[in-house]
Write a structure and sequence with these properties.
This protein is an alpha+beta fold. The chain is 53% helix and 21% strand. It has a 4-stranded antiparallel β-sheet. A hairpin with a 2-residue loop joins strand 2 and strand 3. The chain binds zinc ion (ZN). The site of zinc ion has 7 residues, from loops.
């Protein structure tokens, strides 16, 4: 084997390595794409994933529509971990319920008015 052939072989190997890297990148991109598309239509609490909004620093942000009709942008991990389950209305409802419960309790103490159980 002369040195020319050896150079040739080296170049071919480099080419192949390059190709391999490119296809690896492609596979990664496809996987990423699928994991994104797979989220669409998923429901987390009151939020339904509508579409991908943006990817910033490898964090995915999705457009979500809330059961109350509002649209919000939520980061994927927040949804997956169950940290975000509504546009904010759920917290508002919970807060209202707490206030309502306190009020009811006070009314009951005083024995006045109607109250809900
Ligand atoms: Zn809502």
């Amino acid at each position: 084997m002369n040195s020319n052939n050896l150079e040739d072989l080296k170049n071919r190997i480099l080419d192949l390595e390059h190709l391999l890297n490119e296809s690896r990148k492609e596979v990664a991109a496809i996987k990423k794409h699928n994991s994104t598309v797979g989220e669409i239509g998923n429901k987390y609490g009151r939020l339904t994933v509508v579409s991908l909004s943006s990817i910033k620093k490898s964090r995915k942000y999705f457009n979500c529509s809330c059961d109350c009709g509002k649209n919000v942008i939520v980061e994927m991990s927040q949804l997956r971990m169950g940290r975000t389950r509504s546009c904010g209305c759920l917290r508002a409802i919970n807060a209202r319920n707490t206030i309502e419960t306190n009020r009811t309790a006070k009314r009951r103490e005083k024995g006045i008015g109607e109250f809900y159980v």
